[in-house]
């Protein structure tokens, strides 16, 4: 079964704030840590990201309809400053799949794969860095499926996180094996 077409567009903080508000305050988005955010809080946060030189946000589209959120950042300046030694070509990433009443089997894995493909489309990206909450077992499994390797737990101001890395080679090796039907 085909998942459909996944694409990305730049996030517009003013136009997309209401949509994002529904996503980030939904109970399934608890790890996004914006459960109590007001619409203005979401708008303000994504305006801050849009203005930041080292942080970007995108709306992911599924067959042309908004379905997920992706953020990329330079960990030398955002999120992980002082928490690990970044290497040239490191790019940080967050993603959030929109809540739905009609889940599609395999959709979240297709989203993280599309996000990783987008990040590695930039030839300067050598490694993707993530820092999910240590208790978010579902995202740890997804990360592992696309090639992330846990490094260590770190303490961020808002959470205890599992610092993990995925190299370009590891991702494309996993991705090509999965495409051929080999269990990874």
Automatic annotation (TrEMBL):
Domain Acyltransferase MbtK/IucB-like conserved: 9-56
Source organism superkingdom: Bacteria
InterPro entries the UniProt entry points to: Acyl_CoA_acyltransferase, Acyltransferase_MbtK/IucB-like
Functional pathway: Siderophore biosynthesis; mycobactin biosynthesis
Biological role: Acyltransferase required for the direct transfer of medium- to long-chain fatty acyl moieties from a carrier protein (MbtL) on to the epsilon-amino group of lysine residue in the mycobactin core.
Protein name, UniProt field: Lysine N-acyltransferase MbtK
Species this protein is from: Streptomyces venetus
Lineage: Bacteria, Bacillati, Actinomycetota, Actinomycetes, Kitasatosporales
């Amino acid at each position: 079964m085909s998942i459909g077409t996944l694409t990305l567009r730049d996030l517009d903080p003013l136009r997309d704030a209401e949509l994002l508000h529904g996503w980030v305050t939904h109970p399934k988005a608890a790890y996004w840590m914006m459960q109590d955010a007001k619409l203005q809080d979401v708008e303000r946060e994504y305006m801050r990201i849009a203005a930041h030189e080292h942080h970007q946000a995108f709306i992911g589209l599924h067959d042309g309809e908004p379905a997920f959120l992706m953020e990329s950042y330079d960990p030398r300046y955002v999120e992980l400053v002082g928490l690990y030694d970044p290497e040239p070509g490191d790019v940080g990433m967050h993603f959030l799949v929109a809540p739905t009443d009609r889940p599609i089997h395999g959709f979240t894995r297709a989203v993280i794969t599309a996000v990783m493909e987008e990040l590695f489309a930039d030839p300067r990206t050598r490694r993707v860095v993530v820092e999910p909450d240590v208790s978010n077992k579902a995202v740890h499994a997804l990360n592992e499926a696309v090639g992330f390797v846990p490094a260590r737990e770190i303490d961020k101001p808002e959470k205890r996180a599992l610092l993990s890395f995925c190299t370009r080679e590891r991702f494309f090796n996993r991705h090509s094996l999965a495409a051929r039907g080999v269990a990874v």
